[in-house]
Write a structure and sequence with these properties.
The strands form two sheets. Strands 5-4-3-2-1-10-7-6 form an eight-stranded parallel sheet. Strands 8-9 form a two-stranded antiparallel sheet. It is 30% helix and 14% strand. It has a single domain, classed as TIM Barrel. It is an alpha/beta fold. The chain is built from nine helices and ten strands. InterPro entries: PI-PLC_domain, PLC-like_Pdiesterase_TIM-brl.
Length: 303
C-alpha cells in the first residue's frame, strides 16, 4: 500500500471516529422538553401540556364542534407535548386523515430531536390495532420512534427518564383508550392501554370548579401506580333538554386556562394521587390563557 493510500485510510478512520464522537455528544441530551432540569425526570413524574381533541381546530368562532382555535403545528409550537384525538370513523383512516395528522407530528419531531411526545387516542369504533392503527403510524414514519416498555402495564415509577427516551430516540409514547389490550384483534407492542396506566377524572366537565374523582381507570395496577390526567376543558350545555348538547366553552377559556384555575384543579386531584401533580393537563384552546406557564410551574420550573 503506497503512502497516499495509507494517508487516505488514516484520514477516513480519523473522520469516522470524529463523526461517531460528535454523534455521541449530540445524542446525549442536555436539554429535554425545553429544560435541562427535566432530563433526569422520569416520564411518569413529568407534567405535559395536552391539547384536547387536537383534530378539531378552527378559527371560526361559530364552529361549535371545535375545541382548538389553532392548527396542530401551532399547538405543538405553543408547548403541547401531548395530543389527544378522537378517531370516530374508519373514514379518518381510509381517507388518510390520521396518517396526515401523524405526519405533521413527525415533521415537528424531526425538527426537535430533544422532545418527548405523547399521543392519547380514543378508539370508539373499536378499530383493529394491528390492522388499522399500526399501519397509520408506519406510514407516517413514527413507529421507529415509539417507545416499547419492557413490560405492560408499566408502573408510574418504572418509566425511563426523559433523557433516556431521547438518547435512545424512543421518545414517542402512544396510549389508546380501548383495544390496546388485545381485545380488538391483537396487540401492537408500542400502542399501550391507557387506563391500565393513566387514570382520568370526569370528562366533559361543566362545573368550573372541576371537582375531582377517579372516573376512568383499569387494573391490574393500583391507582397509586397509575399516572393521571385532569380533564380541564370546560363545557356548556347549549340545549338543556334531555341529555343536552355540550360544546366547548370558548367564552370562559381565559379564566379556565388561567394559572389559578388549573392549579386548583391539580390540587383537588392531589389527595387521590399521593400528592403528585397531574401527568397530563388537558385543555381546550391552548393558545388562550396560561396553560404552558402553569405546566412549567407544576414541573417545578422557574417561570
Amino acid at each position: 500500500m503506497n503512502l497516499s493510500i495509507q494517508l487516505l485510510c488514516a484520514f477516513l478512520l480519523s473522520w469516522s471516529s470524529l463523526a461517531n464522537g460528535l454523534y455521541l455528544l449530540r445524542k446525549r441530551a442536555t436539554v429535554c422538553n425545553g429544560s435541562s432540569a427535566l432530563c433526569d425526570r422520569k416520564y411518569g413524574n413529568t407534567t405535559f401540556l395536552t391539547a384536547h381533541n387536537s383534530f378539531a381546530f378552527s378559527s371560526n368562532p361559530l364552529a361549535l364542534a371545535r375545541t382548538q382555535a389553532v392548527d396542530i403545528p401551532t399547538q405543538m409550537n405553543i408547548g403541547a407535548r401531548t395530543l389527544q384525538g378522537q378517531a370516530h370513523m374508519r373514514a379518518l383512516f381510509d381517507g388518510g386523515l390520521v396518517e396526515d395528522y401523524l405526519k405533521k407530528v413527525k415533521t415537528f419531531l424531526d425538527a426537535n430531536p430533544y422532545e418527548v411526545f405523547t399521543f392519547i387516542f380514543t378508539n370508539p369504533d373499536r378499530q383493529s390495532i394491528p390492522g388499522v392503527w399500526k399501519p397509520a403510524f408506519d406510514a407516517a414514519g413514527i413507529t421507529p420512534l415509539a417507545y416499547v416498555p419492557p413490560s405492560r402495564p408499566m408502573k408510574r415509577n418504572d418509566w425511563p427518564t426523559l433523557r433516556e427516551l431521547i438518547d435512545t430516540n424512543k421518545r414517542v409514547i402512544v396510549f389508546l383508550d380501548a383495544g390496546a389490550d388485545g381485545s380488538d384483534g391483537g396487540v401492537v407492542d408500542f400502542i399501550l392501554p391507557q387506563f391500565q396506566m393513566v387514570w382520568e377524572d370526569p370528562f366533559s366537565p361543566t362545573d368550573a370548579n372541576f371537582p375531582c374523582s377517579i372516573q376512568r381507570t383499569s387494573g391490574p395496577l393500583s391507582n397509586d401506580d397509575h399516572m393521571h390526567l385532569i380533564n380541564h376543558n370546560l363545557n356548556r350545555n347549549i340545549i338543556p333538554i334531555g341529555d343536552g348538547v355540550l360544546v366547548s366553552d370558548f367564552v370562559n377559556a381565559p379564566k379556565t386556562n388561567s394559572v389559578d384555575s388549573i392549579l386548583a384543579h391539580a390540587n383537588g386531584c392531589a389527595p387521590l394521587s399521593q400528592g403528585r401533580a397531574p401527568n397530563f393537563v388537558l385543555l381546550d384552546y391552548i393558545d388562550i390563557g396560561q396553560g404552558k406557564k402553569t405546566v412549567d410551574m407544576l414541573n417545578g420550573l422557574s417561570v
